[in-house]
Structure formats: structure tokens, C-alpha cells
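REVIEWER CHECKLIST
Item 1: Sequence provided? yes
Item 2: Single chain? yes
Item 3: Sequence as submitted:
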Amino acid sequence: MGTSIRRIAAYAISAAALAAVPALSQAQNYPAKSVRVIVPFAPGGGSDLTARQVSAKFTELLKQQFVVDNRGGAAGLIGMELTAKSVPDGYTIMIMSGSFSASSATHQPAFDPINNIVPIAEVGFTPFVLSVHPSLPSKTTKELIALARSKPGQMVYASSGVGGLTHLATELMATMAKIKMVHVPYKSTGAAMTDLLSGQCQLIVGSLLPTVPHFQTGRLRPLAVTTTKRWYSLPNVPTMAETLPGYEVELWFGVMTPKGTPQPIIDQLNGTVNKMLQGADMKANLDKQGMVPSGGTPAKFGERIRKDYANWVKVIKEAGIKAE
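Item 4: Structure as written out by the authors:
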């Protein structure tokens, strides 16, 4: 009986070793052909810009073409589903923003992106900025909250869409401050900015890059950044947490891949991202977007994704947000 058990165990170990050989060989030769880089948004946005910079460095460092494939629509869900259902062989990856966690929490799609798309590496992050139209008298977040409390349901804020990061970040502020405002969703941050600049909306918790030029011209007034520390490029702008302790929202960008991608390939891509982030050219490119490099392990990136997801599920429930 003991001999039979030992034979079965030996056979199982041998079978497992043989099964690992193709995956190991595949990883050793990776990449042997071009790699598709899915971006779940239209060209021109933060995810697209980051994807093109990262893909160019992948191409340079790994000696194969990494080709950006924009698959926008449905708050990123179209590209996310395409990624989740792709063959997990390392030849389809995705570059995505923190909208990944937000869209997953708001829409809860059947393909379950949180468990079917896995992290490779975080590239960088940047804050959102609470910005108001200059027609508002508020000069600080505290004054804005007091004004909103004096006019419940009258102040209007813009977002890039229902369940998007700008929407959830603003509702997190509203929940913590115990204020009620009117939400006007747009199809993009650009469209939201147009109405905000014209005064049709009064405030936005929006991306740093498209708002900074309007601070310089006085068309918008920055009140707070959403990171826990003041941002290097806006040193005189307080954090939201200085008024609402515990408030934190960061807009991250990172590389992801379908679940089941061989670990050696994930490790190779992770190492390549960390290497490229050490380069002066990549640091300069990220700085132009108002971002700082992140890097780190897949596990560290995965912790960020799941923490964000849990936070957004809570905000969605408390604010009563319904997916479109």
C-alpha cells in the first residue's frame, strides 16, 4: 500500500513538472512576437498617454513591438472585458487607471475584473484637485463646505460620468462633509471642463493635468488636492485631508494582464517597468503629466486595487449611486 502511494505521488510530481515545462519555455522566450496593449479609453486621455510612453519603453527594452489598442466605451468596461477574456499568454496586456476599481465597483460586471485581471506593476500616480469656478466666494474647502450646507441641493458639480472616479471622489467628499449637491455627469473630463469654465457648473474634483492651466489664468480656483500630502507642483494648495481627516484619492496608472498569465512573464514585465521608471526620460515624461513614478511588486499594486475597490463599494452604497 505504501509503495503504491509513493508511486502515485511520484507520478503526480513528474506530471506537474512536465506541465510546467511549456510555460517555463514560453516565459524564457518572451516576448517572441508583438504584444497588444489594450487601453480601455479613447486616445488622448491619461491612460492613453501613459500607455504610449510605457509601450515605447517596453518595445525598446524587450526588442518586440508593444502596440496600443484603444478600446474605449462603457466606463472602460469594454476594454476590461476584452482583457479578461484574452488568452493569458503575455501577448495581451492592459494599461489602465484607477477607473478600473471604480468601474468594477459601480457596475459589478459579470466577467468580474477584480478577480480575472491581475496586476503587473503600478507606473505612477497623481492627485485629483478640488477646483471651483471663480464666481463662488469660497477660498478654502472649509468655506465651500459651509456654503454648500447653507444651500443644500443647490450647488452643482461636474464629473466625467456616473460611477467614474471624479464622481466617486466628489461623493466621498460630500459624504464626509455631510453636504448635498447636484451631480451633472458628462461623457469626458474635457466636456465637463467646458461647462465648468463657462460657469454652468460650480466645481469639480478632477484630474490635475487638465485643470492646472486654468489655475494660472484665474479661470478656476484650486482649493485642495486629494493626496494625503501636498503635491510638489502645487505646494500652496492644501490637502483635502486638512479639512476632512482621512480623505484620500489618488489617480494611479498601471499595467495589468489576464488571470492565468505565467508568473515568469508577469515577473519579467514587472522588472521591466521598474527598470524603465529609473530612467530620466520616463521620469520627465511622467512629470509632464503631473505624475510621480511608483513601481514596486505585483502584490503591492494588487493591494492598492483591492483597497480602492472596497472603498468605492462603500461610497457607492452610502451615496446611493446607481450604474447607468
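Item 5: Key structural point noted by reviewer: The CA atoms of residues 229 and 239 lie 6 Å apart.
Item 6: Recommendation: ____
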